[in-house]
Amino acid sequence: MLKAKDLLTAIQVDAAGEMKKLSSYRYVFVNDGEKQTNHLTVEVENDAIILSKQADQLLTLSHLITILNEEKEAEIFVGDELVFGYKLVKKGILLG
What we know:
- The chain is built from three helices and eight strands, in the order H-H-E-E-E-E-H-E-E-E-E.
- With 96 residues, it is α/β, with parallel strands linked by helices.
- It has one domain (4-95).
- The strands form two sheets. A four-stranded mixed sheet has the order 2-1-8-7.
- The model has no long low-confidence stretch (mean pLDDT 89).
């Protein structure tokens, strides 16, 4: 189970290392079938941060970090699936 504060800590570690070299880490992605999408919206409900696909909106890493800071004890979901971690991708992070 990954809580917002755990993801924040991991992002801070990467920000001091790998992300520091690359200013292109700007977006949050999730898997969308065989592809990845960063067309996402964020809602907070009952100690849960829920990311949902939203065709006309890009989710930036800075916006997600703002939400994570406000809801440090919340669990993170993509739709109804719990997020267990992330990895760095070309233009941001991929939650999964």
